[in-house]
Amino acid sequence: MRLAIGGDHAGFALKGPVIDYLRASGHTVEDFGTHSPEPVDFPDIAQAVCAAVRQGRVDRGIMVCGTGVGACIAANKIPGIRAAVCHDTYCAHQCVEHDDVNVLCIGAQIVGIELVKEILRVFLAAQFSTEVHFRRRVAKLADLERQAARELSAD
Fold first, then answer.
1. How far apart are CA 132 and CA 39, in angstroms?
2. Which helix (H) or strand (E) holds 135?
3. Catalytic residue of the set 27, 50, 65, 105
4. Comparing 25-29, 68-72, 139-143, which segment has the lowest mean pLDDT?
5. For 2-128, which CATH superfamily applies?
6. pLDDT, average across residues 112-119
7. Which burial class, exposed, middle or buried, applies to 43 when counting CB atoms under 10 A from its CB (0-12, 13-18, 19+)?
8. Structural domain boundaries of the chain?
9. Residue 10 has what DSSP assignment?
10. pLDDT tens digit sequence for 70-108
11. Beta strand extents in 39-102 (DSSP E only)
C-alpha cells in the first residue's frame, strides 16, 4: 500500500520506527516531516499528508503527534478526509470498515511502538464495508462537506 506519513515534534521519536515497520511490511511510505524534534505546527503537516491522500498519490495517511487529537482535528477540516484517532486495534479496523477512514492519527505520548504496529496492521488490512447502511452514512458525510462549502461560498 502507498502511504503518507507525517507528524509534529511530539510525534517525531515514534514516526521513525513507524516508517521502518511500514517499509519492512512491504508498504511504500512518503514522509512529509517533521524531520527533527524542533517545534512545528501540526496543521501544516496534516495539510501535506492529506493533500497526498486527496490527490490519490497515496492510499492512506498516517499522522503521529502527541495525542493524535490535534492532527485528527486538522485532517478532518480538509474535504474528502475522514480521520480518526485510534489507540486500540478495534477502533483501527472498525473506523475503516464502517466509516471509510483514510487517515489514521496516533498519539506518541499515549501508545508505544509495539501497540502501534498492531494498530497499523489492522488499519491497513481493513476494507470499507459494502453494507448499504455504512455506505449511506459515509455519503451523508460528503453531503455535509458540500453543504458547508456552499454556505461558505454564499457568505
1. 44
2. helix 132-154
3. 65
4. 139-143
5. Sugar-phosphate isomerase, RpiB/LacA/LacB (3.40.1400.10)
6. 98
7. middle
8. 2-128
9. G
10. 999 999 999 999 999 999 999 999 999 999 999 999 999
11. 60-65, 83-85
